[in-house]
Each structure stands twice: as structure tokens, then as C-alpha cells.
Amino acid sequence: MQEWPEPIVRVQSLSESGTGNIPERFIKPPSEREAAQLVPEMTKSIPVIDVGGLANEKYTYSEETMRAISNACEEWGFFQLVNHGVSKDVMEKAREVWREFFHLPMEEKEVYSNSPTNYEGYGSRVGVEKDATLDWSDYFFLHLLPENQRNYNEWPNLPTSLRKMTEKYGNEVVKLCMFLMEMLSMSLGLDKGYIREAFGGDDNGACLRVCFYPKCPQPDLTLGLSAHSDPGGFTVLLADENVPGLEVRKGDSWVTVQPLPGAFIVNIADQIQVLSNGTFKSVEHRVQVNSRKERLSMALFFNPKGDVPIGPAEQLLSPEKPALYPHNITFNQYRQFIRQKGLHGKYQVESLKAIVTDMEDDDAVMGGGSGKKRMRWTPELRECFERAVDQLGGPDRATPKGILKTMSVPGLTIAHVKSYLQKYRMSKFIPESSDGGKLEGRKFSEILPNFSSTSRVQITEALQSHMEGQLGLEDQLEASFLDI
User: Fold this and answer.
1) In the predicted model, is pLDDT for residue 479 greater than 70?
2) How far apart are CA 193 and CA 257, in angstroms?
3) Are 339 and 117 in contact, with CB atoms under 8 Å apart?
4) Which of 120, 171, 241, 350 is spaced 20 to 30 A from 428 at the CA atom?
5) What pLDDT score was predicted for residue 422?
6) Residue 469 has pLDDT above 50, yes or no
7) Which 8-state DSSP code applies to residue 132?
């Protein structure tokens, strides 16, 4: 697909127009914009790690540092990095020159408008789904590595210092990334060069996304960036020190990150979660906007080479810890899926745990008769399903087509969703018995009169549809319909 599905609307133009109401296409469902919550004192901020490299560019490889990184990656997936060796002057100048770019006249910026093909350039949306809910932000995306993808002609030539400053900033942060790869490898108990080689050696990828979040007249209705985990290896973020906005999911809470002066915020992304077999976590995060101040941040994504399949490191596997992600895919395949579907929390990486195979039937396998591909409903996939159902208004309103679109899981089909939705609805509609328990072990003919008329119709239709695909399934469901 070469073009966006709808005309692009620049968020900065909307902000500067003076409108008091944001367009409906930017309004997020209430479930996606719950406020950040207070969490216990011991977990209220992401860890801060000092790597001691500012004076002589020789970073600290102490056991204490590696332990701190390991704990941060396992418990938070995020940490702030101080004394990291990147010049503060370079950081400040890079941030300032990009702020100048976003305040150029719109016609100067539109010269660099991007497309869904590779995203490089000036953009305002992620994903090509028609009628998608949009984020309140604009951005500029460019490639730094490998060098044969670094196209200076695609970089803005105004302000005049932007290209030179961006290259200098990129080179310094990439040097830091090389160190971080070694630290992450050793923190996992691997050789320090393991991740670098697994990511393609000298052909590692790096790209920069400069995000601009204009002032928003109704910040409580939208997000600057929807909840997601980053698709690549890891991210080094230069945040806006004066305007907080980044929030990190911790359990069921959202924690606001307060950037330290001169620090980078580092987060684990999906490919490291896969490579570590789930030991290191790529964590959901999002960005809030406000009505008083604009905000700018610079995210450098360090990624595997596009055509290298990524899977769990064999050294981290054992009979007790089998591979959670058994089907290796390349980063290009993974990234293209996200570019098509947009941001959907952690659905993408968790869906890699969903095993699609010709396995024998069991209570956790749904969809298709003998010889057809079946989906194993892992706990992660079930959580994705339930979130989708909630977003669509609950089991009464959610449709298989809507759930499939919302989940955006590779390999999941409409047949898988229909089958599981029927079972899910039945569990929700089963009434309580007189002793407070579910009416287990009874025939549907005995249970059905206890339902409302609407529920009886829904259950009957669900069973009729299911029986069309699998004759004789009713007897099995009578014995196991509660076992979800």
C-alpha cells in the first residue's frame, strides 16, 4: 500500500487553529485513557542506573551494574541511564534544532511527508487501518543504520544545522547502544557479543523518531501515543525534561516517569523479550498530552537486521524453561505487521506465544476440525481476547469480526474467534445456582429456562452456528463448557 487510507491531518495545525474541541477521530475509548494511578512508594519510579562512562568513555562492567540492569529489565523493562558518556551539549543542541524544525511553516515540513511504505519522513499516524483512532502527535522518522539506508536527502535541510547535528547525536547514541548490547547480553548470562551477533553483527539497524506533541484543548480525551511496546531491540529516549508525559505500565497501574536532567530513558523492546525467552520484559507505555505546553522527545530505536530471524537464545532454554516463542520471524516481518495494524498494546509480541499447529484436540485448543490449523489459547492470548471484548462493549456487543480486528494477532482467524467467543459467552451467561455456585454438570435443556429470553436466544444461536461446523460437539460442550 503506497498511500494513507485517509487524508493526513497535522495535529500541530489543529492545535494552532484554536479549536476548543478535538476531532472525534482523536478521541480514545475510556478504557484506553484511564488516569495514571498512585502505586506503592517502593515501586513509584523506574530505576536509575549510573554506568560511570562520562570522563573517559570506558563504561563500568561491574557485577553491581549488571545486576542493576538485570533487575530493571526483569521488573520494569525501563530504566534511566546517567553518566552515560553522551555529551550534554550534543543532547541539548539536537533537541533544540528539532524543535526549530517543527516550528517551521507547514509548507516547509510537508516537503518531507512520509508514506506507509517505509515511514521515513514527516508523519502524523501509525498504521493504515481505515477509520482508526489517531494519536495527538506529529513526528519525523529517519534511518541511521545500516549506513546504506542513511539517506541524507530525506533529512530536513532546515534548520541548516539539523543534518549535521542529527548525525553527530546519532553517532554518539549508537556508540552507547553498542555498550548497552554488551551489558544486556552479560546480564542474561550470555557472551557479551551475543545480542550484537544475533541482531546481525555489523548490520544492526538504528532509526530515530522525533515526536512532537502539540498543546491539546481536551487532553483527557486523547493520548499523544497509544499504549504499546516497542517492536525492536531496545530504545534510548531523550525525553522532555520540562514537560512530563511518558507513562509506564506497572501491573494494573500507569506510572508517570519524571526524566532526570541529562539522563536517557532506556526500555526493552519486543525482540529482546523474545531473545531472552521472556526474562527481560518489553513493557507497555504511552504518552499523555496537556493543554498548557507542547512536548518534544527523541527516541532512537536499536533493532536487529531486517532479514534475521529472532528467537530465544538456546543457552537460556531447558526442559524446565522451554521456548515461549517457538516460531522465529524476521524483524521486517514483525515490523510490517505493526505498520499495517498500528499500536495495540502488547498484542503483537504476546501473539508470538500462540502456537498454531496440527496438534491433538484438548481443552485449550479451539477452531477447525481434523486436519485444520488450530489455535492454542495461551493465558496471554486469552487476556488479549478479553481486552478486545471489553473494548467492544462486552460479550453481548462484541462480534467475531470486531474482536479479530481489535486483537490483530498473526495466525488468528475468524473461525478461531467465533469458536472461542461462543464458549466465552456461555460462561458469562450461566446463572448462579441456589447455593451460589455455577450450574455445572447439567444438561442445557435443564439450564436454559434459568436464562433471560435474550440470553436464551444468544446461546441457541451460538450453539446452532457451532454445530454447523462440528456435528456432535454438543455432547462435548455439555461436559466441558465451563472449562475456559
Assistant:
1) no
2) 31
3) no
4) 350
5) 82
6) no
7) P
pLDDT of residue 294: 98
pLDDT of residue 285: 95
Cβ(301)–Cβ(209) under 8 Å? yes
The larger pLDDT score, comparing residue 187 to residue 373, is at 187
| pLDDT band, very low/low/confident/very high, at 41 (cuts 50, 70, 90) | very low
Any idea where the domains of the chain sit in the sequence? 11-351, 359-480
Residues 53 and 33: their CA atoms lie apart, in Å, by: 39
Residue 105 pLDDT more than 70? yes
Q: Exposed, middle or buried by CB within 10 Å (0-12, 13-18, 19+), for 437?
A: exposed
Does the domain at 11-351 match CATH 2.60.120.330? Answer given as yes
State the DSSP string of 391-432: HTTSTTT--HHHHHHHH--TT--HHHHHHHHHHHHHHHHPPB
Cis peptide before 5 (omega within 30 of 0): no
* DSSP one-letter string for 221-264: G--SEEEE--SSSEEEEE--SSS--EEEEETTEEEE--PPTT-E
Q: For cell 526524566, what's the residue?
A: 259
Q: 359-480: CATH homologous superfamily?
A: Homeodomain-like (1.10.10.60)
Strand pairing partners for 300?
Answer: 208, 236
